[in-house]
Amino acid sequence: MNPNPLLGVLFHWLGGLSSASFYVPYKRIRLWSWEIFWLTGGVFSWILAPWIGAFIGSKDLINVLTSVPSHTLLICYLCGAGWGLGGLTFGLTMRYLGLSLGMAVALGLTTVIGTVGPPIFQGTFGELIAKPGSAYTFIGIAVVVLGIVIVALAGNAKEKQLANVAGDASAPDRGEFDLKKGFLIAVFSGVMSSFFAFGLAAGDPIREATAAAGTGPLWVGLPVLCVVLAGGFTTNFLWCLYLILKNKSAGEWGGTLSKVHAGQGKAPLMANYLLAALGGTLWYFQFFFYTMGESQMGKFGFSSWTLHMASIILFSTLWGFALKEWKGTANKTRFMVWLGIGTLIISTVIIGIGNMVAQ
Questions:
Q1: Is residue 130 within 8 Å of 212, Cβ to Cβ?
Q2: Calpha distance 144→160 (Å, rounded)
Q3: What is the dihedral of CA 22, 27, 32, 33, to 10 degrees?
Q4: 137, 244, 246, 251: least buried by Cβ within 10 Å?
Q5: 314, 151 in Cβ contact below 8 A?
Q6: Neighbours of 63 (CB within 10 A)
Q7: How many CA atoms lie less than 13 Å away from 152 in the CB half-sphere?
Q8: Helix, coil or strand: residue 189
Q9: Any transmembrane segments, and where (predicted)?
Q10: Chain centroid to CA 8: how far?
Q11: pLDDT digit string (tens) for the chain, length 359 residues
Q12: Helices (H) and strands (E) in the chain, counts
């Protein structure tokens, strides 16, 4: 089957939609602490869904994973763990830099490093630049970063305007703003978050073994996710475990409320578990569709990371409108965010054209 970059863009958009949607079920979970619903959903995101998906979509999964060199599995796993660290520190970036600057630095770095880093380390970057269509692809990457900055500026303006509408008492506390500390954390978060792309690139031997076992091109990336996401699970599990011990919240899994929720009624356990399962599975589907999209990008498969980041931000912003998060903002702010959305859409079209020219 010949690669179809336009189909690849569609798959990446589906992945971005899945990623942007996963937190919607989480928001409906009641009387569970963050670490409880995050780890519960994470079991589905990082363990159950990847292995179920790989068992269904690929052939001879266990033999494939045991046949590849152990250092390949270790690199994929460690990259996943590094990516987990990046995600956990993203919140600190927002805390010390604010939404606008924090998003621009962290997500901008993640996009650029996660896109061009793997081919540089693999020694194929020079070949990629020389290929027809490369100019379109790199222009598209630059346009994505521009779109991230525009959306971040619009989000910052939204925060300020909604705070003013609510009154000075609700205005965000800027006392923790620390440019030096925030910038260092943003760089760490952005660099480490890009490690997922490195983990996927390091999984090429797994893809080759999967293809040799008879798996079709759309599904050869699924076994790689099992290894990379295991690393992400480890990082998140350790952090959640620390919070569970600190907050004494483990009883929430059985319906015992922690001190934070004491006296607020009874937790709807069945609904909470189902919502966590739904949210976690939706989260996994971002990379399920990512691997499918990557298989269709042809010679410029490295551009998949840019398309992934652009799609997440695009659909997250649209969810914000659907949930009326932008209600009450100025026309100028809404124009700015729609400009950012349009910029991200244009970037995906430009990258898709570049991949088509390269075929």
A1: no
A2: 25
A3: 80
A4: 246
A5: no
A6: 10
A7: 20
A8: helix
A9: 6-24, 36-56, 68-90, 97-121, 133-154, 183-202, 222-245, 266-285, 305-323, 335-358
A10: 17
A11: 678 888 888 999 999 999 989 989 999 999 999 999 999 999 999 999 999 999 999 999 999 999 999 999 999 999 999 999 999 988 788 778 776 677 778 888 888 898 888 888 878 777 777 777 788 888 988 899 898 889 888 888 887 887 776 554 434 444 566 778 888 998 999 999 999 999 999 999 999 999 999 999 999 999 999 999 999 999 999 999 999 999 999 999 999 988 888 788 899 999 999 999 999 999 999 999 999 999 888 777 778 888 998 999 889 888 888 888 888 889 999 999 999 999 999 988 888 787 777 66
A12: 16, 0
Q: Do residues 211 and 295 make contact, with C-beta atoms less than 8 angstroms apart?
A: no
* CB-based contacts of 61, cutoff 8 Å, min separation 6: 54, 55, 223, 226
> What six digits make up the tokens of 271?
């609904």
Please give the Cα distance from 218 to 51 (Å, whole number). Answer: 16
Alpha-carbon distance 38 to 244, whole Å?
11
- CA dihedral of 257, 263, 268, 272, whole degrees rounded to 10: -50
Q: Could you tell me if 196 and 229 are in contact, meaning their C-beta atoms sit under 8 angstroms apart?
A: no
- Amino acid identity, residue 89? T
Nearest to 111 by CA among 310, 356, 350: 310
Q: Output the CA–CA distances (angstroms, integers) from residue 25 to 22, 32, 37, 119, 156, in the order listed.
A: 6, 13, 11, 36, 25
User: In the structure encoding, which two tokens stand for residue 91, read together?
Assistant: 């919140």
Supply 313's token pair: 């931000």
Find, among 56, 55, 17, the residue nearest to 282 by Cα: 17
Q: At what angle do helices 70-97 and 179-193 cross, to 10 degrees?
A: 150
Residues with Cβ within 8 Å of 38's Cβ and at least 6 positions away in sequence, in order, are: 26, 236, 240
Contacts of 93 (CB under 8 A, 6+ apart): 102, 105, 106, 182, 185, 186, 189
Chain Cα centroid distance, residue 299: 23
